[in-house]
Amino acid sequence: GAVVSQHPSWVICKSGTSVKIECRSLDFQATTMFWYRQFPKQSLMLMATSNEGSKATYEQGVEKDKFLINHASLTLSTLTVTSAHPEDSSFYICSAGRGAINSPLHFGNGTRLTVT
Amino acid sequence: GENVEQHPSTLSVQEGDSAVIKCTYSDSASNYFPWYKQELGKGPQLIIDIRSNVGEKKDQRIAVTLNKTAKHFSLHITETQPEDSAVYFCAASGAGNMLTFGGGTRLMVKP
Question: Is A44 on the interface with B (CB under 8 A)?
Answer without folding.
Answer: yes
